[in-house]
Fold:
Amino acid sequence: MDILNIIFALASIGLGCFGWLAPRYTMGVLNLTTTSDTMGMSEVRASAGCLFVGMGIGALIIGTPAAYAMLGFCWCGAAAGRLTSLIVDGQSQKKWGYFLVEAAVGIPALWLNLG
Structure:
C-alpha cells in the first residue's frame, strides 16, 4: 500500500511538472492554443501544473491514508470532469486516454486508503 501511494504521489508531481514548467508543451498536447495574452499559460501552470505538484507533495509530507485518499479524490474529480466532457462535448481517443489515466490513479488511491 505504501509503495502504491508513493507512486501515485510521484505521478502527480511528475505530470504536474509538465504543466508548471512546460505550459506551451502541455497546451500543445491538450490541443489548446496560445494568444498574445498569457492567461492561458498561467491557467495551465496553475491548474494542470502546480495544483498536482502541490497535492502530490502534500500527500508525501502528511503521509496518512487520509492524505493519500484526498489525492485519489482529486484524480477522481479530474476523471469526472473528463467523463463529463466525453458525454457532453464529444468523444475522442485522447480524451478516453486521459480519463483512463485519471481513473487508474484516483480509484485505486481511494480503494487503498478508504477500504
